[in-house]
Amino acid sequence: KPRIAVFASGNGSNFQAIADAIQNGELHAELVLVVTDKPQAYVVERAQKMGIEPFAFNPAEYGSKAMYEEMLKGKLLNHGVEWIVLAGFMRLIGPMLLSAFENRIVNIHPSALPAFPGKDAIGQTLAAGAELAGVTVHFVDAGMDTGSIIAQETFPVAGRGRAEVEDQIHAIEHRLYPATLQQLFSR
Ligand code: GAR
Predict the structure, then answer these.
(1) In 39-159, which ranges are continuous DSSP H helix?
(2) How far apart are CA 113 and CA 136, in angstroms?
(3) Which residue range or ranges hold the Formyl transferase N-terminal domain (predicted)?
């Protein structure tokens, strides 16, 4: 079973879906660490409730991305982490972690990449009047949401409002992410 760390900056509903899938036996992995750059994020509480060690750090207390990533790398290697799973982690991963976890970092993004990378992808999708909204799971590289695509699901926006589109995206994410990770880990 691969040992994984989930990185999250917010609510952590995708962390929850992954932790639940592990508990249900649908995803064969050991979730050994939850990392957040936002000590107040709700994901910290979720991790505690699931009995998984949360690790919160404040990037402002480090001189640079390389410095906090060096600290994180030590932490991850200490825990025997093999895969990093980004779940709403709102920072670019730098060379320090990319080289330590080559082809072992994945992300989920709320658009049909390569359309609408970056922040507020759902808002971007709606503002552009795009036909399709979607969810993409991809490998992480040095770019912003540019790594190779592992899985993608799209659906027509068809005049629906933001709340409805958001709900559908989250429902897809919570199913697609654990299923895609299971495929990835078993190949
Ligand atoms: C998810 O919709 C995820 O796709 C998105 O943040 C949300 C986190 O929700 N990620 C990005 O936008 C990354 N650029 P959660 O905290 O409830 O899992």
Answers:
(1) 42-49, 65-78, 95-100, 121-127
(2) 6
(3) 3-180
Q: Is 168 in the pocket of ligand 1 (CB under 6 A)?
A: no
The atom of ligand 1 lying closest to the CA of 107 is 13
81 lines ligand 1 (CB under 6 A): no
What are the catalytic residues? Answer: 109
92 is in an annotated binding site: yes
Q: What is the DSSP letter of 163?
A: H
Cα–Cα distance, 183 to 96 (Å, whole number): 27
C-alpha distances (whole Å) from 12 to each of 8, 34, 110, 140 are 6, 10, 14, 19
Instruction: Classify the complex by whether its ipTM is higher than 0.85, answering yes or no.
Output: yes
Tell me if the pTM is above 0.95: yes
Structural contact between residues 12 and 41, judged by C-beta atoms closer than 8 angstroms: yes
